[in-house]
Amino acid sequence: MENEEALFNDEVSDGVDALNLKWVVGFNKDIICGVHNLTSENRTEIFYTAAHTGVIYNYITREQKLLQGHCNKISCCTVSADKRWIVTADLGEDALMVVWDSLTATPVKTIASPHGKGVYCIDISSDPRYISTLSRSSPQEIAVWDWSRDVEDSNDAIIVSGEVPFTADSDEGLHYSLRFNTSNISEIATNSAKSVLFWQWDEDEQTLRYDDNEKEMKSFFRQSIEALTQTVFIPNTTQAVTGTKSGQIVVWDMSFIMETDSNPEQRRPIKIVQLVNTEATFLTTQGDYLVVGSKDGAVRFYDQRFTVEAWFEHINAENILSISFADLPPRSCKEELAKRGEDSTSNFACPDFIVASDNAKIVELKSTFFEEVPPAGEEETFVQGTILVKGMRYPVNAVAVHPKKPWVAFAGGDGEHSYIYVWNHRTRLRQKFKPVNGKKILREYSKEPLCLEYSPNGDFLCVGFKDGTYLLLDSENINGERQPQIKYTDKARDILRIIFSQDGLAMAIADKENKVALFKWEHKKNNPDNPMEWVHCGSHKSHYKPVTGLAFGTSIDENDRNLLRFFSVGEDRRLIEYDTNSTEATQLQILSVNKIDQENKPTCCIWYPVSTGEDLLLTMNDAFKVKLWNANNKDCRLTCLGPTSGGPVTKIKLIVKSKDKQSTIDLPDYYLAYSTAEKIIGLIKLPLDGNPNKTMGLIGHPGEISDIAVSGDYKFMFTTGGKDLCANMWFIAEEAIERQIALGGSGEEPFQNMIEGGKNGKAYKDMKDFFYYSQIRSKKENTTKARKLEGTVPLEEIGYLMRAMGYYPSQQEIDNMMNEVKYSKFTNTGKVVNSLDMDTLLRVFVNHRPVYGVDRNEIKEAFEVISGGRGVLLKDDLFELLFTKGEPMNERELRGCLTSLLMPVGGSAESMIPNEITPDYFLEKILGFEEVAEEEIEAESQLVFENES
């Protein structure tokens, strides 16, 4: 074990990013022909895809070469016959098809947006110059590409293309199998569930045609047959075969008999052969053999008369989806067994091969296994082959990392099945634990795990389940017999969050019923004679919308003792503090409830680790803002623009990095690892000051990100992708963020770059003009006396300046801005700030203004809600809402606003408003909004992202 760990000990950053992908756990098990054997005399590697990453895995040295570049989950892949070229493709926006050199693991050709939205099915010819693809669109397209062409527009690499003559609106019409004829690359076969097409293409004549065999199929298949699976050409013959879900194959051949309206070389179905008693899930050829993988997990070899020659039925696999052979000479069973002094009557020979199955296993098999006989009495447990990769069969819901050991725990399920296992990130192997009395408790516990966390001392692995049960496993042996279980309320379900206090003596959970529960590690009933255990101190349904964050913190009380504090935030926009002195007798008590936002929803929270002289809580919200709150009076101390790519941040983890040994500063550097609900992961450097260069993000998974965790030594970040069945291990290189901060400029330069046009743009110049005018106004503008401008304005001017710049904050938001500036230097100087300078104005503006403006659809939705679904408001109802809801206006304020907006000539502004107000009237006539073209909105949004980058 020590030698194995030494293989992976010298982890260094080999990239320029702050997060560098080092390893991928799992693979895309459901891709047909998605696993390929690259093994030859000089290499021991296989290729497979994992989410949006290609993986070249050396199964002897246990090393991965990772092929990165796709934004979407890879939908299909293929490998050339000489094992040199790998082709991967995906489906969706910004789709790519990439040709990789398998020896150097580098891309040699990238084709953007093939078929517009990507590739559904792919194959490469025996001459690896040509690639054939099928789209997922309707109508479905087929194309042949010469990827070696040197063209400016990558789509000019298409030689011929055509439309599949069946609708792709239904599963039956969609063609999902595509194969070149290995003996004649000008032929391609495709099939759907009910039809097979044989295509012929000619590069010189630029033609692509297919045999219309619909009439022959109808006359031949007089009885209904099961859905078709795949079609392959039999090498060095005119035959092709198509598998079915009932285990039959349809044999196709050319009749060479001229018939009316038919091609003499057209393939026709000639017979049906029953090969297996279950679905033929995968078909390929090897030499003269037809190789069939079936749903029962067996692989069988057939000669050209379709007589079985060899079979492998003890693979412990299910539903074979890939079979791939090494680039090695065939190995004869007879010769191999003769070397061992054993006899064989079989002439069967094939190269070593691998299979991938629906139960997320990649297994290596040798031809000699065909002759192996199970030992007496072990027929049921006998297994052939070596497992090279064992992935995740069901979605990955959660991940946790042991604080002291290189153990990573994964948990998940699909509602009917569940699993928890521990992986060693140093050896890259699953951690094995001894069953107790021959049992594995996790296999017996069938409820789906939704979240898990290691305790700070590493003693427990704590799991929250779908049924509301909280299970504490012995981290040293998760199969242990004595596992404490806590079901804290009969009505609890779907435990979604677990956190521990820093000292490990308190634990809190939140569930789908919006309840929060507190546990403490103490003597039962406070009796020292009782053993220490987790005591349930009570729960409270404190939020009326989902709980989005839990946080423990530590304050110093008046006696210089550490005081444990506990908080939660939810979609109801409430920040709640609980009494950590609550016990079994008192139940969980609430100390304070504060509404911290008017319209934006908090998405997560954490105790702020940076020492500032006051206790702070950090929250993030769905408006892409990061906020710091005074933990005592709940005042907002700082608002910063957070990461804006990929949606709001939903999960955060603290990273503590020790200073360089040469540094004279003892305090460590702090970072936050974060993830959004989909795609994006990243890092944020603390302390917060709004500098956009302190944030980075990248695509971590092609879709959902179900959970994140950080290793105990803070070197690695782990992310799980839910339904993509993969987990990624990232090396954290914080020096990349430090370089980014240094290159982004100092002082106000990063903030100036966040304004449209930068320092020399119109927006920044307007801000300076407004600021200078505000100085004049604050000094009484109606005077001829000389004014002395001090470069500041009263703090009360901040609301006017924001509105002048086109940002219209609520009064609560203005109060927050004023508080932030007022107390920005209080902990250092003990004094409040009552004025505003230009640099502070710039920082406050770029960090507080909304990332996206209010669009017409949002106004219409608001009208739908407040009008009870009518979409139209009566004038009296609108005025009543403005007088009584939100931040109420008085009649004088309302009259002043309407007069400014409508500018009536005689009479009152109120009389100009109709009795029924539509959203369009409200926008165009009252607010004066102009219709903005969609392209302009997209361009403006892109500008925001570019400025942040």
TrEMBL record:
<dbReference type="InterPro" id="IPR011992">
    <property type="entry name" value="EF-hand-dom_pair"/>
</dbReference>
<keyword id="KW-0677">Repeat</keyword>
<keyword id="KW-0853">WD repeat</keyword>
<dbReference type="InterPro" id="IPR015943">
    <property type="entry name" value="WD40/YVTN_repeat-like_dom_sf"/>
</dbReference>
<dbReference type="InterPro" id="IPR050630">
    <property type="entry name" value="WD_repeat_EMAP"/>
</dbReference>
<dbReference type="GO" id="GO:0031514">
    <property type="term" value="C:motile cilium"/>
</dbReference>
<protein>
    <recommendedName>
        <fullName>Cilia- and flagella-associated protein 251</fullName>
    </recommendedName>
</protein>
<dbReference type="InterPro" id="IPR001680">
    <property type="entry name" value="WD40_rpt"/>
</dbReference>
<keyword id="KW-0966">Cell projection</keyword>
<dbReference type="Pfam" id="PF00400">
    <property type="entry name" value="WD40"/>
</dbReference>
<dbReference type="InterPro" id="IPR036322">
    <property type="entry name" value="WD40_repeat_dom_sf"/>
</dbReference>
